[in-house]
Amino acid sequence: MLSWQLMSGWSIPAVAMQPLANALQARHPHDSVECLDWPGYGEQPSLEKPTDLAELANVMATRLKPDAIWLGWSLGGLLLGELVSRLGPPKGLVLLGQSGRFTATEGHPGIAQTTLTSFTQRYHAEPDRTLKYFQHWQASGESEPRLAQQQLARSLAKVAQPDDPTLRAGLEQLATLDCRALLTQAPCPVWQLCGADDPLCLHRPATRPGGHLMHWVTPEVVVDWLDAQVRPQVVPL
To answer: How are the residues of the chain apportioned to helix, strand and coil, as percentages rounded to the nearest 5?
Structure first.
C-alpha cells in the first residue's frame, strides 16, 4: 500500500487531479490517494503574503505527509520541490509536466522569459480572458484539444477559483523558482514525466504520449508509467 498526495498547478484547483486520483485508486484499491488544494485554491484560505514560501511551508507542514509520495503537476511540482528542502523529504517526489524550471535558461529549454512576461501583463489587463486562453494553451498538446479544454472548463466551473493575489504570486513563482539542483541532489527519489507534446514543459527527460493535460485526458497512461517507474522503487519486493 502506498500513500499519494496530488497537487495541482497554476490557476487550476485540485479537481484537475481527480481523474488521475481515480485511475490510481481503481488500479490500487488499497492505496491512499488524495488531491490537495494549495492555499488560495478551492476552499483553502489564501496566505497573508502568497509569495512567502516560508508561510507556505508552515501551512503545508500540517497537510503534506512525509510517508507519502508527493506528485506535483506544473507549478505544483516547483512548489513541492521547494517544500522538500523546507519540510524534509517525502517517500518520493513526482514532477508531472514540470522539468524543474519553467522558464528557459542556458542549456535548459523552457518558456521564454519574454513570453511569460507578456502573459503576465496580459493577465493583469484581462484576467478572465487570460485564464481562458491559458486553458486553451494547456490543452493544445492533446489529441483532441478542444474537447480536453471544454471538459476541464466544465469541471473548473463547479469549484471556487483562486483569488487574484494568489494567481499573481503564482506567475512570479513560475518566473523565478528553480528546483533543478534538487533533482541532482535529492534527499528522496525523484521522477519526472512530461507529455511528448506538452507545450509548457519543453525539457522532457521522460515522456508518454500527450500534452500538459495528460493526467486529465489519459490518466491510465500516467498510472502505467507510475507503476513501471515509481512503485518498484518504493514498494519492497
So the answer is: 45, 15, 40
In this prediction, the residues of the chain whose per-residue pLDDT falls under 50 are none
The pLDDT of residue 205: 86
**Cα dihedral sign, 128-7-35-18:** positive
Separation between Cα atoms, residue 14 and residue 4, nearest integer Å: 14
Can you give the pLDDT at residue 87? 96
Spatial separation of the C-alpha atoms in residues 72 and 163, rounded to whole Å: 20
The whole-angstrom separation of Cα 206 and Cα 212 is 13
- Would you state the pLDDT for residue 236? 65
Which domains does the chain carry? 3-234 (3.40.50.1820)
Contact 147, 213 (CB under 8 A): no
Q: What's the longest Cα–Cα distance across the chain?
A: 55
In one-letter notation, the amino acid at residue 107 is: G
The distance from CA 146 to its chain's CA centroid, rounded to whole angstroms, is 21
The CA–CA distances, whole Å, from 229 to 65, 109, 162, 189 equal 21, 24, 33, 11
| DSSP H or E segment with residue 103 | none
Check if the beta carbon of residue 198 is closer than 8 Å to that of residue 95.
no
pLDDT of amino acid 185: 87
Q: What's the rounded Cα separation, in Å, for the pair 219 and 215?
A: 4
CA 5 to chain centre: 11
pLDDT for 237 equals 53
